[in-house]
Amino acid sequence: MNTPDAPSEPTAAPSTSGARSVAGVCAKPAAGPAKAPAGAVTVDPAKTGDLAARTKSSPPNTTFWLKPGTHRLEADRYAQVIPKKGDRYLGAPGAVLDGRRTNQYAFGGTARDVTIRHLTVQNFVAPHDEGVVNHDSADGWVIEHATIQRNSGAGLMAGARQQVRASCLRDNGQYGMNAYKSGDTLKDLVVEGNEITGNNTGDWERRREGCGCTGGIKFWAVDGADIRGNWVHDNRGAGLWADTNNNDFRIEDNVLEDNDGAALMYETSYNAVIRKNTIRRNNWVEGRRYAESGDSFPFATVYLSESGGEPRVRARTDKIEIYGNVLEDNWSGITLWENADRFCNSPANTSSGDCTLLTRDTDRCVRPAIAKAPLYGDCRWKTQRVDIHDNRFTLDKSVVKCTAKCDRMAVLSNYGTYPKWSPYKGEKVAEAITRRQHNRWHDNVYVGPWQFVAHDPSQVLDFGQWQDTPYRQDTGSTLDPQAGD
């Protein structure tokens, strides 16, 4: 994987076999205006700190035009641009804002409706879990035709109603974008037509094992997101990762390929449509690592963990529907998982302090109330109402270079044991996710030597067993086991 000072050189477009139409914007970024628009304030790269100073001295709703060249802030780690409401920043061809590995943040503050277009932002050193552009997660920002690269932390944070379009989020130390807003739900996010590549150069999951703190993009408590037409590739770790009380996502027409981990993780979240994506060659690094360690868990390229449809949470759908996707030569397919020991107020809940959208107060989830309705159901995130249909799954083990554990489709849980007062001990959750929570595969096409896991990791089934009693999965689906073997 590339170091922060050695940016990747992506091709101009994703490989074309079965691909949707997405732009390779990193190789060919759209050029900004060569002349200052009428009424714009011109910013001079020869004057260190000119951008921050002119922003401070200008009224709200000012347009700033950054001349060609490398613009710099004062040599203070906290020096940054603090926009006013409605400010617009336009970069001329070749305009770069460079943090010189000195400044932590490029654009911060709480002003709404700020626009940044045609500007490269690079070499800032935001701390872990913090971001360089829109550091304070202000609302209504528009980021278009921007290149945000080679920064520590996250290249970009997000606020409500933020739009990120046709931009290159490349080779950032932790995330391309960290869609997180402290103390608030982040609503109505649009991520469209971007190239998101080479992020997590800091390899944070290895530095902090189990941190769950990486991804091309990570989403936290986002209510309403349209993620479409992006090329998400070659990230170290997951491509897209929605974690903890996200809701109402549409993930469509993206190309997700060659990410070290899963292409898509949807964790402790609700209600989504995942459709018409091309997903290939993902999870080769992480899937292989777990398999070689002897782990029998079916780590997959689309991984739903404690996530499902919930009609009581308002959204454009009341289920998770996965359809019309092409998955080609990934390390395994789709896994639906529910950890029996993970629920509100359990020490096994890695989203510590958080509770479901149905029971906001974690302290309610205790004995004896949690042992019966409604808290028995509402204190846990459920993998339920997942409808997987009309997808094409192909696997050629000679391409993936694997002999075992790369060929799984799965719906399962663990045996509940913890904590002592848990009402979910034993096989209760495994029985529920497998047979009673309306998780269904049907009308799919499988090419290659696929196997299926149901109930728990020990139950590895062939296609006939998967379709037969008691699981009755993949009605109307076909399997050609010889192709690609």
TrEMBL record:
<dbReference type="Pfam" id="PF13229">
    <property type="entry name" value="Beta_helix"/>
</dbReference>
<dbReference type="InterPro" id="IPR012334">
    <property type="entry name" value="Pectin_lyas_fold"/>
</dbReference>
<dbReference type="InterPro" id="IPR006633">
    <property type="entry name" value="Carb-bd_sugar_hydrolysis-dom"/>
</dbReference>
<dbReference type="InterPro" id="IPR006626">
    <property type="entry name" value="PbH1"/>
</dbReference>
<feature type="region of interest" description="Disordered">
    <location>
        <begin position="1"/>
        <end position="23"/>
    </location>
</feature>
<feature type="domain" description="Carbohydrate-binding/sugar hydrolysis">
    <location>
        <begin position="137"/>
        <end position="291"/>
    </location>
</feature>
<keyword id="KW-0677">Repeat</keyword>
<dbReference type="InterPro" id="IPR039448">
    <property type="entry name" value="Beta_helix"/>
</dbReference>
<dbReference type="InterPro" id="IPR011050">
    <property type="entry name" value="Pectin_lyase_fold/virulence"/>
</dbReference>
<protein>
    <submittedName>
        <fullName>Right-handed parallel beta-helix repeat-containing protein</fullName>
    </submittedName>
</protein>
